[in-house]
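Same chain as my last thread, 146 residues:
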Amino acid sequence: MSVLTSITKEFHFEASHSLPNHEGKCSRDHGHSYRFTVMAVGFPQPMNGQSEEGMIVDYQRLSDCVEEHILSRVDHYDLNEVLKDEVPNTTAEHLAEWILRTLRAQIPEIAKVCVSETANTWASVSAAPFVDEDDFTRKLDPREER
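reply #2:
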């Protein structure tokens, strides 16, 4: 029996930003200690003597990808400046979407990202965990004919 499985890992970075059109204090430059989680979803790799056997995605591979494509670009930077061509507004919602899009280009199993600016606020975005949406539906929906 194949069991759909997920793994999640948390990451941190410090950055400043502003929301120029915001009517409150967030329109001014300010910083956050951002936390974000990345979830990968899939079926564990077969037990075949390979490095990632029994895993969806190796945690180290995930960490290396996040370091290279996300943290190296945002940690201790002004997000409005470094992401100006990729993120329309540096809200948690848009940051989560950017992280998801960026990481899925490298690891298609990534299906969800949650971004937190404070201890009690976060934004989440999700995508189907498989690149082929039709294949995903066939594997998960028992009503689909086989």
